[in-house]
Amino acid sequence: MLLYEGKDSFLEEVVDFKKAKYVLLPVPMDITTTYLKGTKFGPRSVIEASRSLENYDSELDFEVRDVVFTSGELEIPPDAVKATDVIKSTVSDVLLEKKLPILLGGEHTITYGASLAFDEDVIFVIFDAHADFKKDVLGSPINHASNSRLINKRNKVILVGTRSLSQEDKKDLAKSKIPIFRAQDYSRLKTNLSELKNLIKNKNVYISVDMDVFDPAVAPGVGTPQPGGIFYETMLEYLKIIVGSGKLVGFDVNEVRPLGENNITEILAAKLVIDLISLNER
Fold it and tell me: What pLDDT was estimated at residue 1?
């Protein structure tokens, strides 16, 4: 197993691996980023931000305590293919131990690596401002802008909060019959939640959150910001439906790009981890 205990722990909790129900994997991958570099520093920054938050989740009335083992940062090779192999192998080890993996990125390509460790019946609900359905970027088929396309080769993909795609992406997404719940559909939120519930009810579900799904006003520290995003309250409504309707088998929060003293993006990312654990435990 590639895991070892990290120097810094999520929520400042040192939890024995054998007793933990969740394993948090910091994945400092920043290989294929095409706009703003720096997401490899995201995992460490999110863990540091978590130490300023309470274990008690007041929105969900649950205390996250003694359930998360924090691994040291994965050693990511400077090659996208080899990097995804490392992620796949590590997540596979966590699943063999009957624990739920939580990945902190890092660029969004980490989700593709993680997907290879799961069975093909797992549905991937991906929160992302971008469709990430490119055939390749600069000749590389494995990259952050092809993440959804790559995962969709094996697993069903559902996109939430998407608002940036090309005409080619639009045609390919329609051909692949991928459901898209757009960020702009606020007036359809109740309908969206109902439709999403029907798609994932009683299914194994993996949740992936690219932090650029949020509006830059609340999450400015990302690799590829995009105006017109969702807000925390809307995200929480979606998460409640997903965790309440399906069976959560893993999740990740990625694309955090630290901005120095302005760490509101890291705070929000850490809060999402707490919320997802709280929802799953309840």
Answer: 52
Backbone angles phi, psi at 162, to 5 degrees: -75, 135
* pLDDT tens-digit series, residues 76-120: 999 989 999 999 999 999 999 999 999 999 899 999 999 999 999
Contact 68, 100 (CB under 8 A): no
Q: How far apart are CA 78 and CA 230, in angstroms?
A: 33
Q: Are 208 and 250 in contact (CB under 8 A)?
A: no
Fold topology of 10-281: Arginase; Chain A (3.40.800)
For residues 88 and 113, the answer to whether their CB atoms sit within 8 Å is yes
Its pTM stands at 0.95
Output the CA angle 56-42-86, nearest 5 degrees. 105
DSSP symbol at 74: P
- Strands 62-63 and 56-57, by their bridges, are antiparallel
Least confidently predicted of 77-81, 135-139, 195-199, 268-272: 135-139
Peptide bond into 38 cis (omega under 30): no
**Residues 6+ positions from 55 with CB-CB distance below 8 Å:** 11, 13, 63, 64, 65, 274
